[in-house]
Amino acid sequence: MSLPERVVLVGPMGAGKSTIGRMLAKELGYRFLDSDRIIEERCGANIPWIFDVEGEDGFRQRETAMLDELSESQGTVLATGGGAVMRPENHALLRKNAVVIYLKTSIEQQVERTRKDRNRPLLQNDDPEGVLRRLFAVRDPLYTKLADIVMFTDRKSPRLVVRQLVNRINPKTPRHKRQRRKEGRQHVPGTQRA
Ligand code: S3P
Q1: Which atom of ligand 1 is nearest to 86's Cα?
Q2: Residue whose CA is at the smallest distance from ligand 1 atom 16
């Protein structure tokens, strides 16, 4: 596989998409983009507020618009929200010019990693584990269908996951060449450097 224009990370809440995405971008010399954070910046409000005021449907509309815009980007690693696979029209947007990576994570890990979180409206209830189980049942087949690479993340450090991903994405590029590409890349205003 030669280096793709974009790398897109999908997977459930607590899979580590942002942490791993940021590190992977650095390693590839790509820019890191996080669709949820950009939605928040554009909207001037956080995701709980958007869910409160516009409902989940309002958030999903913003998400589709954002995925559409970001599908044109090049040299980027995109971390998506866990529900990005729910709208069929998002599928082509996620896959456009991209290697799609599913960060697959057990329910136990998802529960552990989201336990103290207050920024995920779908989990602010009496049974977050039950919600994660139900979402997994619906979404796991979608993540799997969309993905070029399925990477298990349980009991692995982010560093190990990133190393394994770099090998899967582009096993032939030696480290010094990735470094050179990284140094050559320009910062584009309005985006976040990894
Ligand atoms: C959601 C996941 C969240 C965020 C929103 C909805 C979901 O993103 O987009 O709270 O439907 O699974 P993370 O997967 O980054 O937590």
Answers
A1: 11
A2: 13
Residue 48: CB partners within 8 Å, gap ≥ 6? 118, 119, 121, 124
Predicted structure pTM score: 0.89
The token pair at 178 is: 């990735």
- Decide whether any atom of ligand 1 lies within 6 Å of the 121 Cβ: yes
* Per-residue CA distances from 82 to 7, 10, 87, 114 (Å): 16, 7, 12, 12
**Residues 41, 23: Cα–Cα separation, whole Å:** 21
120 CA: nearest ligand 1 atom: 10
How big is the chain by its Cα radius of gyration, in Å? Answer: 16
Q: What is the pLDDT along the chain (194 residues), one digit of tens a residue?
A: 578 999 999 999 999 999 999 999 999 999 999 999 999 999 999 999 999 999 999 999 999 999 999 999 999 999 999 999 999 999 999 999 999 999 999 999 999 999 999 999 999 999 999 999 999 999 999 999 999 999 999 999 999 999 999 999 986 655 555 555 555 554 444 455 44
H/E stretch holding 137: helix 128-146
Q: Is the CB of 21 under 6 A from ligand 1?
A: no
Q: Which amino acid is at 83?
A: G
Helices H / strands E in the chain, number of each:
8, 5
In a 3-state reduction of DSSP, which class is residue 9? strand
Contacts for 116 with CB less than 8 Å, ≥ 6 apart:
none
**Other CB atoms closer than 10 Å to residue 125's CB: what's the count?**
9
